[in-house]
């Protein structure tokens, strides 16, 4: 192991000496030489060594700084997810399934920002310029002052961006970028990490907002090393089912705004159109009351959203009954079924269970537990819930119902769409007048007995 290098520095003139002495040869000061250990004394040659850096200016927590200036795109749903608009010098990562509409969304966003006065550059590494122009013509964006390029060489892209100095640069996609200083194929872990690092550094150095498009894996995670998500300031997922026209832009990380915020879009022949009232859209296909259907009043980020949870329970011809879930966590379904059987004495053995969130929405909050239980019981007993009722609440393993946050916002959204009754845990706090009759439940056993007459 190499011996760490120790230097001796004069505190008066900062002269460096190889060994200690009582008097500095440079300035003549006595007893001013002190021993300085290296910054890193690791066993490898890759340690920082004895070279010292500059001192960093430190500030206290009370220091006031001007918040970043945001630029609105004109697409209210996109601005909502970004936290109020685009922040200069920010790095954003947008992921989604192939063909879900990432390129369409970003082309529309680039056109909106360009029309708002920002200089925008769109670099495509997957499509030819003619393909991008054809999409722009179909979407009616040909008149937008967006500069277009098709290139995969990262060095050439950075040189061009450094020359143009745009306020917004979109790279589609990060998996196609190739850095000539990395000895691996495009799309590999090394290439993706190096390209993301170079582009993020460029954004911080020049003040250009950089948007990176990322592919996703079969599990729905952005492909490549997870360190890319740590590098950028904002990570957005563009979600949706191929069979539905709804698309959801979800923020899973945002250093400049709230995480878990969503923006809802509808895919049309003219591109993506904004949905300002997603609750009405997700409930638009509800007709007369049917067994197995429950309306859940949820919260996505800061926005209340009403969705329909559908369940189907049927006898299973198989030895192991099927459990099929779309739009919800399968683990939550298993837990709810276990609590219904253990605490309420309602078995689901020998029954196939199918659970779905209508409209392609994905629900992640535990407040949907009570709505899931209501849909399951409604399907099993073949009894329809009242059509003017919303349900929300978390179910504990003991069968007790736990309160959830933002009860008042949930009830106001339900009242806006014509609902007059709500079922919620007994400790749910609803301050103010919401115009909805709130029915409190203490545990799952009481809920089953009061609503379905069993327990």
From TrEMBL:
Family matches, as Pfam families: AAA_25 (PF13481), ChlI (PF13541), Zn_ribbon_LapB (PF18073)
Binding site for ATP: 96-103
Membrane-crossing segments per the record: none
GO BP terms, alphabetized: recombinational repair
Keywords: ATP-binding, DNA damage, DNA repair, DNA-binding, Hydrolase, Metal-binding, Nucleotide-binding, Stress response, Zinc, Zinc-finger
Molecular function in Gene Ontology: ATP binding; ATP-dependent DNA damage sensor activity; damaged DNA binding; hydrolase activity; zinc ion binding
Short sequence motif named RadA KNRFG motif, residue ranges: 253-257
NCBIfam families in the cross-refs: sms
Protein role: Plays a role in repairing double-strand DNA breaks, probably involving stabilizing or processing branched DNA or blocked replication forks. DNA-dependent ATPase involved in processing of recombination intermediates, plays a role in repairing DNA breaks. Stimulates the branch migration of RecA-mediated strand transfer reactions, allowing the 3' invading strand to extend heteroduplex DNA faster. Binds ssDNA in the presence of ADP but not other nucleotides, has ATPase activity that is stimulated by ssDNA and various branched DNA structures, but inhibited by SSB. Does not have RecA's homology-searching function.
Protein name: DNA repair protein RadA
Organism expressing this protein natively: Actibacterium atlanticum
Gene that encodes it: radA
């Amino acid at each position: 192991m190499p011996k760490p290098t120790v230097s001796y520095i004069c505190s008066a003139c900062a002269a460096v000496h190889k060994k200690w002495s009582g008097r500095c040869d440079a300035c003549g000061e006595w007893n001013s030489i002190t021993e300085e250990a290296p910054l890193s004394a690791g066993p490898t040659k890759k340690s920082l060594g004895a070279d010292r850096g500059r001192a960093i200016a430190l500030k206290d927590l009370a220091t006031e700084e001007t918040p970043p200036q945001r630029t609105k795109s004109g697409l209210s749903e996109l601005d909502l997810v970004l936290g109020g608009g685009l922040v200069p010098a920010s790095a954003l990562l947008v992921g989604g399934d192939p063909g879900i509409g990432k390129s369409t969304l970003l082309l529309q966003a680039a056109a909106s920002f360009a029309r708002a006065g920002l200089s925008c550059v769109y670099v495509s590494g997957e499509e030819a310029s003619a393909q991008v122009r054809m999409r722009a013509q179909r979407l009616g964006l040909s008149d937008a002052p967006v500069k277009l390029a098709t290139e995969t060489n990262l060095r050439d892209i950075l040189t061009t961006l450094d020359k143009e100095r745009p306020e917004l640069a979109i790279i589609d996609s990060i998996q196609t970028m190739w850095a000539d200083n990395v000895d691996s194929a495009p799309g590999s872990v090394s290439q993706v990490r190096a390209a993301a690092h170079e582009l993020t550094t460029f954004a911080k150095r020049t003040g250009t907002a950089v948007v990176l498009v990322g592919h996703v894996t079969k599990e729905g995670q952005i492909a490549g090393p997870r360190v890319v998500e740590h590098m950028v300031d904002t990570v957005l997922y563009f979600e949706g089912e191929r069979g539905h026209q709804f698309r959801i832009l979800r923020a899973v990380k945002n250093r400049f705004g709230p995480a878990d915020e969503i923006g809802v879009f509808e895919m049309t022949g003219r591109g993506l159109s904004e949905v300002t009232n997603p609750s009405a859209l997700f409930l638009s296909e509800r007709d007369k009351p049917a067994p197995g259907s429950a309306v859940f009043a949820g919260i996505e980020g800061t926005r209340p959203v009403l969705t329909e949870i559908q369940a189907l329970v049927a006898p299973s011809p198989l030895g192991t009954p099927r459990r099929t879930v779309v739009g919800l966590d399968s683990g939550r379904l298993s837990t709810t079924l276990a609590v219904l059987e253990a605490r309420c004495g309602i078995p689901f053995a020998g029954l196939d269970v199918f659970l779905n969130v209508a409209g392609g929405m994905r629900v992640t909050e535990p407040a949907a537990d009570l709505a899931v239980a209501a849909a399951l019981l409604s399907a099993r007993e073949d009894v329809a819930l009242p059509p003017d009722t919303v349900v929300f609440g978390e179910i504990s393993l003991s069968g007790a119902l736990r309160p959830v946050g933002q009860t008042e916002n949930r009830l106001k959204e339900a009242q806006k769409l014509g609902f007059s009754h709500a079922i919620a845990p007994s400790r749910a706090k609803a301050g103010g007048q919401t115009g909805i009759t709130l029915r409190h439940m203490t545990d799952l056993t009481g809920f089953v007995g009061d609503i379905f007459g069993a327990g």
